[in-house]
Amino acid sequence: MRARVLIRPKAGILDPQGVAVERALPALGFAGASNVHVGRLVELDVDDAAQLRPMCEKLLANPLVEDYEVQLLDDGG
Amino acid sequence: MKFGVLQFPGSCDEVDAVEAARNVGDAELIWHRDRDLRGAEAIIVPGGFSYGDYLRAGAIARFSPAMESVIAFARDGGLVLGICNGFQVLCEAHLLPGALLPNVNLRFTSRQVELDVVRGDTAFTRACAAGQRLSIPAKHSWGRYYADEATRRAMDESGQVVLRYAPGHNFNGSVDDIAAVRNDAGNVFGLMPHPEHAVDELIGGSADGLSIFESMRLAVEGTHA
User: Fold this and answer.
1) In A, which residues are within 8 Å of B60 by CB distance?
2) What domains, with CATH codes, occur in chain B?
């Protein structure tokens, strides 16, 4: 099964990457973009989708500073 | 006394850590695949880029065989010092509270920093006096210490903040200027600046880092007495 894990900085924790991107956009003429946050994307095939959450808690994310969201994708089968 | 210094693929400060520790005792390297800590009485998790810092700094090193032994050693009360990447590894292993995030300036920064000793009565600072200022180099891009407010309150109550960046020296944006923390039991300690690079005035401009290693020696030899 194909899965996608989205990992984001927790709300309220300063995200300097998001701030830098947000500041760069108007400089390129893109007005009106706000609340920019930069996270990580992990895509993987797993036999057992029940393992995804423990994987996130233990390794893929650091729950102290990051939120994660698991998406199961159509595996085309 | 004998120090054991871990060596991961991607470590780069382990030899300096061995040399620094040899100012106060014996020291040898422990390869990351080795579960045997070989009689070390204190462990140093050194700086560098363990396992390429993939995913998050320290996230993968924390599961190495040597770290499993270090976690057990720490749970038994053994002294563990984490420097820079080693601090990140100890936080990822939950031996220390909090986490390290990208520097607020998003840049790799290498500079001398001044640190205020908050507590001179810990196993890692007993050769220092509270209020003393240490001059030690720092070099990292992922050194912004963060712990949530409840955690920081608990840390304050149990005296777990050991060093703070002096005014004007908190270049990475660490919360409350926190530069070094210890665990509640007091036997695990981590900091981003590099005491092992400040043990010889001739080449480091400061030998203030020696006091960290000397404190550990005093702590270990005190427990033998």
Assistant:
1) 59
2) 2-224 (3.40.50.880)
